[in-house]
Amino acid sequence: MSPRRNRPRGGGRSARRDGEADGRYGMEHTDDWRGEEWVVRQISGQSAAKHYRCPGCDQEIPPGVPHVVAWQRDGRVDDRRHWHRACWNARDRRSARLQRSRQAPRY
User: Fold this and answer.
1) Which of 70, 79, 83, 96 falls 20 to 30 Å from 51 in CA-CA distance?
2) pLDDT tens readout for residues 10-30
3) How far is 97 from 77, CA to CA, in rounded Å?
4) Which residue intervals make up region (Disordered) (predicted)?
């Protein structure tokens, strides 16, 4: 019996259009926020492998938790931010000045 394949059997990656799913990542779409166009990608729990800090609530997103990655359409790759899904949906209702507690890690 041969071992299970973890990768799809496709050759190369095909070009994706807006709203299509990728093999490693989730659905991607554009969203308007504060007069700018943002690219928003849904990340599944299986694809989330690192710790991230959510800019909406300033809390940690542990590995294995589904979340959202958002960046400006004409921004750099370094400008991507990882948000909790609820924080991304409530970004207009959140205050801009969140304070981190003394015991919170600084990364």
Assistant:
1) 96
2) 554 444 444 444 445 557 888
3) 25
4) 1-28
